[in-house]
Amino acid sequence: xxxxxxxxxxxxxxxxxxxxxxxxxxxxxxxxxxxxxxxxxxxxxxxxxxxxxxxxxxxxxxxxxxxxxxxxxxxxxxxxxxxxxxxxxxxxxxxxxxxxxxxxxxxxxxxxxxxxxxxxxxxxxxxxxxxxxxxxxxxxxxxxxxxxxxxxxxxxxxxxxxxxxxxxxxxxxxxxxxxxxxxxxxxxxxxxxxxxxxxxxxxxxxxxxxxxxxxxxxxxxxxxxxxxxxxxxxxxxxxxxxxxxxxxxxxxxxxxxxxxxxxxxxxxxxxxxxxxxxxxxxxxxxx
Length: 287
Ligand code: GUN
Hints:
Helix 1 (8-28) packs parallel to helix 9, helix 6 (140-151) crosses helix 7 (171-178) and helix 6 (140-151) crosses helix 9. Strands 1-11-8-7-5-6 form a six-stranded parallel beta sheet. A three-stranded parallel beta sheet has the order 3-2-4, with helices on both faces. It folds into two domains: 25-120 and 267-284, Leucine Dehydrogenase, chain A, domain 1 (Rossmann fold); 140-264, Rossmann fold (3-Layer(aba) Sandwich), CATH 3.40.50.720. The chain starts with a strand and ends with a helix. The chain has nine helices and eleven strands. Helix content is 39%, strand content 17%. Strand 5 (160-164), helix 7 and strand 6 (188-192) form a beta-alpha-beta unit. The protein is α/β, with parallel strands linked by helices.
């Protein structure tokens, strides 16, 4: 058996088309959707991600605002910049690209972002609403994973989902999202991580495996139940080559699997655009 591919590029392109229409509608009412990006330092992958996000904006009619600070920028300079984005009415929402260079207080900066402009859903207030089962803006990668599987008719209801990784951007909010009492969600979620005993045995019991570790090839065929759905959401690089958390042989046992390129990544970017247009709609008044 060879698994079928969860084509993130295809599903993302449909979402982007909806975003383009909604952005156009707002424009007809005199509002141009504005999305801000802040990059600190010269991390290669982060710079490329931000470039792609800005190219996506141009594609769907969202105006992007960008600032690149050097890694040597002080905490105060970054905080001042965040406050200026908070105050700029052209910027309906924005993100500070993570990770920040060593020495910066990521939690402190995320907390300074005005919650209504938090396009990432990573402000403690927005994560708190998610934890209270009243989600507002959803973190982009978790939301993208749910949309990707939904597009292929794969729901989470009642299924055992094992998430590898408990990071801020994927694992932790994804666990909260999948366990919500809502049709299509309602999963039984297990989160495993580097200190988990018998990790392979736990993964093997999953109906759906979602790996968000950034450890290339950590999920192998021998750990996966035959017919399981397997999603690679972690990223790492060998030079410029993007590596997946999933070993190639996973496709031999899974029913559905994400490709190394064009799986979760484009979905994350599409959900970012969707969050951006919703932030602008909230300001303009829906309709
Ligand atoms: N770096 C990796 N993933 C993310 C994300 O979802 N948001 C931000 N701001 N930075 C990231």
